[in-house]
Amino acid sequence: MIVCRRHFRIGKKLLPLLFACAALLAFAAPQAHAGTPDVVITSAGPVRGVVYDGVREFKGIPYAAPPVGALRWAMPQPVKPWTEIRDASKYGNACPQVSRYGLTAASDTEDCLTVNVTTPWNGVAPQKQLPVLVWIHGGAFVGGSSALYPLAHLARAGNIVVVSLNYRLGVFGFMANPAFGKAHDGGYGLEDQRFALRWVQKNIAAFGGNPNNVTIAGESAGASSVCMHVISPQETKGLFEKAIIQSGGCAAPLHSLAQGNAFGQKVAALAGCTDEKTELACLRAKPVETLLQAGVKASGGDLMSFAPLVGAQTVPLQWNAAFAAGRYVNVPVMNGGTRDELRLYVAYDIQAGEKIDDATYPAALKTVYGNNAETVLKEYPRAAYSSAPAALGSVMSDFNPEVGLNNSLYLDAAKLMTRHEPVYELEFADPNAPAVTADPGFEMGAVHSSELPYLFPHFDNTTSLAGPELSPDSQKLSDQLVAYWTSFVKTGHPLAPESPVWPRYTADDDVMLFYPGKTGLYDATVQHKCIFWKALYPRILTE
User: Fold this and answer.
1) Running DSSP on this structure, what letter comes out for residue 248?
2) What is the overall mean pLDDT for the chain?
C-alpha cells in the first residue's frame, strides 16, 4: 500500500511532496480528487474537466498511446503516464478520415485514441456507483467522431455515467493486409474499442461509475461493432453486462479475411507499396492523406469495404456460426433500427447527381437485386409510394442483400438471439424526424441516424450541433426513448413512465414502435415483408 503522510508543515516544501503523492496515487488506483469535482486521478494521471448545468464532463482523455510509427497497424498500447493535471475540457482529435457527403469533417491526425466521460452532478458525490453507458460512434467504419454526440442529456435524464470514445477508422483501423499481424489482421479499430472498455473497467469507479454495470451501445458502424463484441467472448467477456444495437445488421454476412487481405493489397498498391518484403515499412512511412485517398479509390464507394472481417482472433466466426457454437457473450440486448433506413443513401445518391425517377426505378432494383428484380418490382410497385426515390429507399430499408442496414436483417438477428438471451426489439418511425442531410426533394421519413437527435440533442453530424429543436410531439417521443434506454442501462429491462410495457421479443408483434402519439407494440415482420424476403434470400435470412 502507498501511504502519503498528512503531518507535513504547510509551506513551500510541502507542494513537491503533495505532487509526488498524487503521482504515486495515479499509478496505484484511479480515484476522485477529494473536494474538487472537476479533477479525477486516472490510472495514467490526473485530469481536470468542467462542471456545469448538473453534469461533470471530462473530454479527450488518452486511453492508449498514439498509434503512429511502429504502432500503426499494431495492437493498442498503454498511454505514457503523466503527473501534472491534464486539461480535459475539450474533445480529442477525430481519427483520420476524409470528408463525406459534403457534410462531415476531415482529419489527418493519428493521435486520436481518447475517451470522454460525463456524469450527473448535483453538488455531492453519488451515494453509490452509477450504471455506465459506453457509446460507440457510427460512420461506416471510415468516419465519425465521439465529438458529434453530446452526452450531458443522457447522463442527467437517466442519472447514469456516459462514456464515448474514438477508434481507428478505414485503412488504419479496418483494413487487412498479409503484412499485418495475423491474430488481429483487419481488426485494429475493434481492438481499440476493447482497449477503451478495459480502460473503463480500470477507471470508471473514480468518476462515480460502476464497472460491474456497463452497457455498450452504438449506432450504424458503432452498432455493428457492438455485434462483433457480442460474438467475441474470448476477448470481451466481462467488459459489459448489456448491449444496445441501433441500426446494425448483426446477421449480415461478413467478408472473409482472405477477401480483406486482397483489398488491403489493392490499397497498398495504390499507395505505392508493392514489394511484399518491405510492404509494412512502406505503408507505415506513407503520409496519412496518401493512405486515405488510396482507401477511397480502392473502395469505389462500397459501404462494406471497411466492414469488420471474419476469420482472425478479433472476430473468429460469422454471427450465426458463433451462436450455433455457443461463442457469444450472454447479455440482455436492445436491438433495432429505423423504418426508412436507406432512404438516406438514396438522398446521397441524388445529391451526387444520380437520376432516380419512374423510368429508372426498375433498373435501380436490378442493380440491387439482380435476377430477383422483377419479383421485387411486383411486390413493391412504384405506385405504392409518393415518389421513385421513396420507393427505392423503402424497398432497400426492408431488405438489401449487400448492406446490413435493413429491417429484415435486424429481425433475423433478434430471432436468433432471443433463443439464447433476452432481446428487446424496437423500430424508430417518426415520419417528421429532423433532416440529417440537405433536402433531396422527396419524403425522407425516419431515415438512417434520424433517431440520434432524440438521444443526443441537436445532433447534426457535425461538431457545431446545429440541429433544430424537436417538435412537441417528437420531443415526447424523445423523452420516451431516453427513459426506456436509460432504464435498460440500469436494470436490463426497458421501462418508461406512463408508457407501454415493453416485453421480451418472443413473437413477431413484440416489437416496440416509436411513433409520435402511437408508441406501442406492432408486427414489424409484416410491415417489412420479411417472409417475402426470406423466400428470396434464404442463405442470408436464416431465422
Assistant:
1) -
2) 93
Looking at the structure, do residues 67 and 157 belong to the same domain, yes or no?
yes
299 catalytic residue (yes or no): no
Is 220 among the catalytic positions? Answer: yes
DSSP state of 146: G
Q: How far is the C-alpha of 266 from the C-alpha of 465, rounded, in Å?
A: 37
d(CA 169, CA 112): 10
Residues 290 and 363 in one domain: no
- What's the Cα-to-Cα distance from 456 to each of 336, 347, 365, 449, rounded to whole Å? 18, 23, 35, 11
Q: Is residue 14 in a domain?
A: no
Weakest mean pLDDT among 5-9, 60-64, 399-403: 5-9
Residue partners of 226: CB distance under 8 A and separation at least 6? 136, 216, 217, 218, 243, 244, 245, 248
Beta strand ranges found along 402-525 (DSSP E): 423-428, 511-514, 520-522
HEC string of 344-395 equals HHHHHHHHCCCCCCCCCHHHHHHHHHHHHHHHHHHHCCHHHCCCHHHHHHHH
341, 425, 427, 451: which one is catalytic? 341
Q: Are 489 and 215 in contact (CB under 8 A)?
A: yes
- At 135-147, the pLDDT tens digits run 999 999 999 999 9
Q: Decide if 516 contacts 481 (C-beta within 8 A).
A: no
Q: How far apart are CA 56 and CA 42, in angstroms?
A: 15
Q: Which entry of 229, 448, 449, 451 is annotated as an active-site residue?
A: 448
Q: CATH number, domain at 426?
A: 3.40.50.1820
Measured between alpha carbons, how far is 216 from 134 in angstroms, rounded to an integer? 5
What is the rounded distance in angstroms from the CA atom of residue 184 to the CA atom of residue 316?
10
For the whole model, what pTM was predicted? Answer: 0.93
- The packing angle between helices 407-417 and 388-398, to 10°, is 20
Does residue 237 sit in the same domain as residue 276? Answer: yes
- 3-class DSSP state of 234: helix
Exposure of 372 in the CB half-sphere (CA atoms within 13 A):
16
What is the tens place of the pLDDT at every residue in 176-216? Answer: 999 998 999 999 999 999 999 999 999 999 999 999 999 99
528 catalytic residue (yes or no): no
Q: What is the 3-state secondary structure (H, E, C) of 496-538?
A: CCCCCCCCCCCCCCCEEEECCCCCEEECHHHHCCHHHHHHHCC
Residue 501 pairs in a beta bridge with: none
Domain that holds residue 103: 54-120+129-310
E strand or H helix at 59: strand 55-62
Catalytic residue among 43, 164, 220, 299: 220
